[in-house]
Structures are given as structure tokens and as C-alpha cells.
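Both lines are quoted verbatim for reference:

——
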Amino acid sequence: MLFAKTLIALISATAVLAQSPANAVASGAFFVGEDTTESSVTARSMFEKPENHITAVSSVLAFAAKSVNFQPASKPAKSLVTTLDAFVERVSTFPGFITSNWVDTSIKLNGSFTQLEKMIREADDHITHLPLIARNIRDLVPGYIQDKSLKKWILSLVVLDNPEDSGNPKFKLVRVVLDLSTDKDHTVFIPEQTAKLVIVDFHANGASLIANAATLSTMIPTIVSPRDAVDLFTSPKVIEDTTADLWAFLREKSFSLEAYDWQVVLNWKK
């Protein structure tokens, strides 16, 4: 029964995050809490030791993003729409993560950036770090859009969280779907509308990470710190600039993952 409920939760979380057609994505990320990772962490010890699990989480997220070519730091905004959904699917079906809560709601916007932030900040009393989420989402709205055909946007946020003394790393996937308009100078403004807000809470299944440490460390040999993960999930401020390539250091470390799949490696969802 517990497995069935967990599977339903995963399917539901994937569904609410993926039901958002759009033209372009602006992505961001931030990290709150304490990085308890050992300085001598290895691919195996990041899964074996609870104090390293925040780095295990960020490494799995980076692995999942790279495997489906979701590369906000180096790809144009309009190329991220389909890969964002693929990234969410990969993350949501990883057996080392558990969905604990989510919000799926509509927010009425009056055209003010301040009001957008306020509506997100007040969306749900059960979601932690909403003021930070609201400010970061507001900051994701591009100031300038060269291609005026890009009107339907997803503002996507990854929130890494390692509460002090909790031993239970968490993360959130946040999505706001809204229309953006531009004036004759390509400056962006938010028209009045009803936008969509989705926040899905995940936490690490520490027992699963420890039990599968040997397999996971072979599958995911590249260590990505929370701070590096923030860089990887953050779109350039000038969204038309595609020259940045913050994934280069991953490729240099032979980040081989095309042959892997959660289902194959851990016999997930037989």
C-alpha cells in the first residue's frame, strides 16, 4: 500500500509540473541551509554517508538534467521547454527521492512585479522559504526579450535545502506559467492575467541512497556540489546569449550517462 501511494504521488507530481505548454523557459536556482558535505567526499561516500546527502541530491539533479539535455546555463530559452518536462520526469521517478507535498494553484496578476511576488509569497502556509522563492521567481522575469513571438513563459526554479541538524536534505521544483509582453523597445511587462503556480516538495530517501550506494556511485560518478548545481540551473541574465557553457567541466570529467536509466539500474517501476 505504501509503495502504491508513493507511486501515485510521483505520478501526480510529474503531471502537475508537466501540464504547462509554453514558448520559452527562464531557469534559476538557490541553496539554503548548511552544506555538511565532507571535504574528502567521493562518489560512493556521498551516497553512503547522510552528512553528504545534500551533495548526492545536487549530483543526481545534475545527472538527470544532463541526461535529457536540460542545460539552462548554456541553452537558449526556447529550447528548454521540452527538456524541462523530461528533467522533471527523470527526477520524479528517481527512487531515492520522495514527494512530500505540492501546490497547484492559479494566481491572478494585475501587471505589477511587486504583486507577482506577493501572490507567490502568500500562496500556501505549508511551503517553506516562500519569500525567497517569490523573490527569485520575480528576478527570473527577463528584462528584455529580443524575440517578441516568445509570449508564454515558464519561470522554473530549483530550490536546494539542507536544514541544519535535520539530516534530511530536501529540494523543490517550482514553476510559474505566465504570459509576458514587450513594448516597442523589447522591454518586458506582465499583462493582467491568471497565471499558474506549481511547487513540488521532495526529500531524499536516505535509506535508499545508502542501500544503493555502490550502484549509484558507478552510475553517477561526478560530484556536483549544491553551489555548482545552482550555477548549472541558472539561465544567463541576457537570455539570447548562448555562448556560456557551464557544463564543460562535467564533460571533461567523462560524465557518461546516455546508457543509464533509473528503471534499468535499480529495477524501478517493473
Summary: The longest strand covers residues 97-109. Residues 2-255 form one domain.
